[in-house]
Specification:
Length: 366
């Protein structure tokens, strides 16, 4: 049961021809659909004022608490176009649950899961024409929440703003995805026990960019994060989880309390089980990773997350050594195909991961 009623205020949609032109090369993250969905929370009213409305700037006072104390959380999920004209959201209920968990950890109000899903659906209903029809492309949905109270006190805010925007996205991975290079930072850590590593709050990312810069300076694409205690065990990569193909097993670091429980990670674990691949959640030490690659035990490594689906890892660089971790192999490819086939409706959705959102009568004609 949803508690919020969404009102709709429509903008004149972008002319179809212009939209289709933009959709032919969407890139990632710089193109937005016509509308956004917003809702507000305060102690007196709870969640209220839920609307889909034209995408526009927010007007916020300089003393808005989110600017100063960083109470911001977000999610990222995708919608896919299907040949039958419907759009499919991938595991929105799981994203809703994680969003609520993130809010709880940041002392923010929880948006009921059904309202989160209804908000995402409301955006898809008004902007369904923005879901690219090319296989591989998708519509990236970004729900987020911020402390909207105007006050300089250092305490949880008493007013919040929730919003959902959408951005058409190019293929996450082509048929031959380019392997990425990873930098193991000797200095910086992403998350420690008891911290915020298990949730999607803005500060986790802002705090990681200095290491990301270091990675780029060393010719790498992303950082591979090590545990904060010993700098010994591998945790995750940038905004993705990590998998190793070791012998005939698929191994991923356990949810130790410092890494993000990726929904793609969970999907891969379940798909692998379905494909008859043995899976294990076990700590992986950086040294064992190197040894495993050198002695041929580890044959494939890949990163996974909503934005990129699956990206093979080709190389690891540390300050004093580096090693190749193999090209995209058959297991990586099989899992990527199995995931995409479900998302694009080409195999039955046996896990019940897809939520279909019908087309809107008022949608611009195709
Ligand atoms: C979002 C995210 C992931 C991947 O999660 P998905 O649910 O698969 O998109 C992994 N690690 C971090 C740090 C993230 O922010």
């Amino acid at each position: 049961m949803t508690t919020l009623e969404f009102t709709t205020d429509r903008v004149e949609p972008m002319p179809a021809e212009q939209r289709e032109e933009l959709l032919s090369m969407p890139g990632f993250g710089s193109l937005y659909s016509d509308h956004m969905v917003t809702a507000r929370w305060d102690a007196a009213h709870g969640w209220h004022d839920a609307r889909s409305r034209p995408l526009a700037e927010f007007s916020l006072h300089p003393a808005t608490m989110a600017f100063h104390y960083g109470q911001t959380v977000f999610e990222g999920l995708k919608a896919f176009w299907r040949p039958d004209g419907q759009r499919a959201l991938f595991r929105p209920e799981d994203h809703a649950r994680r969003f609520a968990r993130s809010a709880r950890r940041m002392a923010m109000p929880e948006l009921p899961e059904a309202d989160f899903v209804a908000a995402v659906e409301a955006l898809l209903r008004v902007d369904g024409a923005w879901v690219p029809r090319t296989r591989g492309h998708s519509f990236y949905v970004r729900p987020f929440m911020l402390a909207a109270e105007t006050h300089l006190s250092n305490r949880p805010a008493e007013e919040y703003l929730f919003a959902v925007i959408g951005s058409p996205a190019r293929p996450a991975a082509g048929a031959e995805p380019k392997p990425i290079r990873l930098w193991a930072s000797p200095e910086y850590v992403r998350a420690a026990d008891g911290g915020t590593g298990t949730i999607k709050c803005g500060g986790n990312y802002g705090g990681s960019y200095v290491a990301q810069r270091e990675a780029v300076a060393h010719g790498c694409d992303q950082v591979v994060w090590l545990d904060a205690r010993e700098r010994r065990y591998v945790e995750e990569v940038g905004g993705s989880n990590l998998f190793f193909v070791e012998g005939d097993r698929l191994v991923t670091p356990p949810l130790s309390g410092t890494l993000l429980a990726g929904i793609t990670r969970d999907s891969i674990l379940r798909l692998a089980g379905r494909l008859g691949i043995e899976v294990a959640e076990e700590p992986v030490a950086l040294d064992d990773w190197e040894r495993g690659c050198r002695d041929g035990r580890i044959t494939e490594v890949f990163a996974c997350g909503t934005a990129r689906a699956i990206a093979p890892v080709g190389h690891v660089v540390t300050p004093d050594r580096d090693w190749p971790t193999g090209p995209a192999g058959p297991v990586t490819r099989r899992l990527l195909k199995a995931l995409l086939d479900i998302q694009y409706g080409e195999t039955p959705d046996e896990f019940g991961w897809l939520r279909l959102v019908g087309t809107d009568a008022q949608e611009a004609p195709r």
